[in-house]
Amino acid sequence: MERTLLACYAHPDDESYGAGGAIAKYAAEGVRCYIVTATSGEVGLDHRSEGETELGDHRIEELACAAETLGAEPPVILGFPDGGVEGHIEDVAARYLATFEELRPDVVLTFDKTGVTGHADHLAIHRAVTDAFQQWDARGSRLFYSLLPRAQFSKLARLLEDAGIASAFENFPEWDGSPVPPDGSYGPRVTPDDWITTTLEVDGVKKRDAIRCHHSQLGPEAAFVAMPDDMAALAFGTEYYMLAAGSSSGTEADLFGSD
Ligand SMILES: [Zn+2]
């Protein structure tokens, strides 16, 4: 029987950072993988040179590049306003519910409750997808949140240090439960390691290659995206998830579990 995975994120690039490894792994095993992104990221960073096309249009192409790199189906963008997902949260949940009913995914992936960076759109997608999943007649399907735990930060810090690249990753504080950082800025949230229910070994080079598709967004991150393949394989070679709904049977190292 054909298996299906659906990745639900806010902006082009969230899918690659959050779940690029899982998408590539399962697509290679013959799973049909879909990416449904709420916005085209039209008010995101823009590290391109001036005089190019509209950022949103460009990021749609970057997302298509990432989907192809990962072996996913052509991505779908729902067209909600970048930075304004919260104001449309019921409509967003309704669109995701309709997508669940249409595709009947065995596995749904989205942000955990920190939103990874605390971005308001990420938090809204976490809520909308969770609500939609709860309303859906899931019949054995599973919902997972993609995590950015201490284990991941420690590994990145060690790799960068070994390569002689200074890193502040080790010093990131663990998330304190507040939805917005005290200074109002966005930044990575370290999730507690005990949230991890599922650890996946993935192709870190392919995940890095998908992140690279989003070149309009690559400012300071470009350094670690440019790392040699053997380092990327280690840096991006593990993904961590938290099972949020569905049976835990066989899910320690496999999002599809054993039933
Ligand atoms: Zn985002």
Helix content: 25-40%
Whole-number average pLDDT? 90
Name the helix and strand elements from N-terminus to C-terminus, one letter apiece. EHEHEHEHEHEHHHE
Q: Quickly name the level 1 CATH class.
A: Alpha Beta
- CATH fold group: Rossmann fold
Identify the strand order in the major beta sheet: 3-2-1-4-5-7-6
Rg, rounded, reads 17 Å
Q: Which small compounds were modeled alongside the protein?
A: zinc ion
- Per CATH, the superfamily is LmbE-like
Beta-strand content estimate: 5-15%
Quick summary of this structure?
The protein has a 7-stranded mixed beta sheet with strand order 3-2-1-4-5-7-6, with helices on both faces.
Protein architecture, described:
- This protein is an alpha/beta fold.
- It has a single domain (4-245), classed as 3-Layer(aba) Sandwich (Rossmann fold), CATH 3.40.50.
- The protein has helices at residues 14-28, 55-70, 89-103, 120-135, 150-162, 204-213, 222-225, 229-235, and strands spanning 4-9, 32-37, 76-77, 107-111, 142-147, 198-201, 238-245.
- The protein has a 7-stranded mixed sheet, sandwiched between helices.
- Helix 1 (14-28) links the parallel strand 1 and strand 2 (32-37).
- The longest helix is centred in the first third of the chain and has 16 residues, at 55-70.
- The two termini are 13 Å apart.
- The mean pLDDT is 90.
- Bound molecules: zinc ion.
- Zinc ion binds at residues 10-11, 14, 119, 122.
- Residues 10-11, 14, 119, 122 line the site of zinc ion.
